[in-house]
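Assess the record.
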Amino acid sequence: MPRIVVLDEATANQIAAGEVVERPASVVKELVENSLDAGATAVYVDIEEGGLRRIVVRDNGCGMDEEDARLALLRYATSKIRSAADLHRITTLGFRGEALPSIAAVCRMTIKTRPPFMEHGTFLRVEAGKVVESGSVAMAPGTVITVEDLFYNTPARKKYLKTPATEGGLVGDCVGRLALAHPEVAMRFFHNGRQVLATSGSGDMLEVVAAVYGLDLAREMIRVEDRSLEWLQVEGYAGRPGIHRSSRRHIVTIVNGRYVHCLPLVNAICEAYHTMLPAGRYPVAVIAVSLPPALVDVNVHPAKLEVRLAREKEVSRAVTAAVRAVLQGSRRSIPGVIMPEGVSKADPGPGQKGSAGMRAGLQADLWQLGEAAPAYRAAPPPFPQLHYLARLGPAYLLAAGPDGLYIVDQHAAHERVLYEKYMEELTSRGRIGIQRLAVPLQVALTYGEASVLEEHRELLYSLGFELDFWGPGTVVLRGAPAGFPGEVGETFLRDVATALEEWGRLPPGEKLYQRLLSQLACRMAVKAGEEMAEEAARFLLRELAAAQNPFTCPHGRPTTIHLSYRELERRFGRSSNRPG
């Protein structure tokens, strides 16, 4: 008897389902992508109990006749490719020919579908992948697929699922990303009868950002668009540095209309925010890239959640440059949420508005962001000149601006000024000026620490540090940037050695210099608790106003907190038109 056997069709389909269908969100993704490929302009997703009990996906796409509907339930049956050569120029979202039969293998499924040219639709009831009932049905053109009792015949799968609330949240995330990738398609998502998400299909990505993430966040998003390369288009929205999250989940990457987890693109977006965000925090961004299909391999993941880019480094550099350009352009704008006239924070969210009035309401609410406000993006208001008032406690300066009160963190502000001074000096001269120490500082390090410093001796010299190496573990600091505090020399060199060991896999370059200069600026800056003379404080405020990015320190912490006159009036219960 042979040890190798050919599996029966039912078992093979369940194995395929394990690759494609992990949870309700997987089902929704596959079915909605099929709807999009069918040319749908409206897609509705309705789930019960997180999708474990029931999933309904309805669209107004091209539909199928009975023959095609039955063929779609066969493995490797697809309308999207004809030969292996087509795998190198895929422009559709689904193509593997496994999704529908894989889903049908682990649930009870009903398919209702009708092409526009037919007077009636086709009805198929499927259990465990087999058609058990069929007939005609009256319906509008399009397709409605109902999935019930997911994993009813594979109970072991259910133990890996989360609670219905968690699974429903994952479905919501999935629909939101699909909506962001296709703002031209109206989408609605319901969970247990409650509308959670609604988009109008206007084609405005910012409107979808508002629907998915909320109006307040949408106001903090900046338009990204770069078509400078003939073969690559980068567009989307990037959040201002003041908006950040604890994980990368709010970074959405879209490749040729397909939302995917593309780590090179995620890293490229994060790189654009370097020195602008606190450590361990991540930006909010929705970035879509479009490039020739031949440069994208979408056949590297069963559920098509990942892609491989043929010109990965070039694409990543372009994305970083595009995002960084708009962030630098927005750095000089004053942060804060400005509510448009007539809009209340208590207004219902877009998911609660009726579809008829939603688009008009959103466009009014959106404060004329995006395409409606090119002048605002092109010329943001500058950081104001501040007038020193007094010290506040051990760490803060109070200053008056033309539009209110500013509280300045003296350490963060000085860090920013020094960081940009060092970066400018390094860029223009190739190195930071060295001041010889009157008494050289001998530092005892581990062999590994001293070795890594010696390996990067030229790099440290460009940063203003002149070192001698006296055998294993002994380093003599002979020169440092002007004003460098000798008492922190030992800890600073240890920190640099540790950083270089951790970053040893990274190629030397701008990113490495940015990180080291951030550490240097932190060591050199005035500390919380240190007294600043009034003239020094005034000088610091002038230098901060002249900085490229006066709003954050190199580590991403804010340098200032602003209280507008309007906010002060509100807090004191005053009105601008009320006497006294």
Notes: The domain at 9-194 is CATH 3.30.565.10 (Heat Shock Protein 90). The CA atoms of residues 31 and 57 lie 7 Å apart. The first strand starts at residue 42 and ends at 48. Residues 79-91, 332-366, 368-376 have pLDDT under 50 and may be disordered.
